[in-house]
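Data availability (excerpt). The following record was deposited with the supplementary files.
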Amino acid sequence: MFRNLFLSAALAVAAAPAMAERIDIDLAAITDDIVPTRVLAGDREFGGNGPHMVVDGRLLVTRGGTALVAEITFRAEETGGDGSFTRITRNFEVWRSERGERIDYVLGGGVDRAEWVSSPGCSFGCGFVGPHEDGALIVTRRFDGPLFSEITYLGDTAGDDISTDDNPHGDTSIREIRFRPITVETIE
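Predicted structure:
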């Protein structure tokens, strides 16, 4: 009987789950350009009508818990005119384990949406203070949501807005996304 108790206790210790720990982590900023190229409605020009811009983000635990990927969907839709509309979804690795920790769960801030209406571009005679391209300012907006801290973008321009290639110059695009620190649960 004593032997069976010893074996039961040894099995219980071996089967005990790893201890979970909550930690705050900083995510790397997305500095790659996000440039939609598909015209889903209308034409390539917003024509001074917005666009209404929406950025959806969610964090995905990948690589067996040793990395986080931000899935970003960016869409821009003309607020008038012929309803020009575009959308793109891209994934970006924003965190990777450096000490062997493994994320089991994102506790807060794993999903967010930022939306706004861009100002129209300017065709002639505009005086700009700050970075600009093709008659429009490159703007950084701050957000109070659980994931996004700042988004830098170019909205409506003086020319075509929905790009024909991956080059963001003079086209509606996201230039940078910065994140708030998030809390995760790790298993070591």
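Summary of structural features: The chain has one helix and eleven strands.
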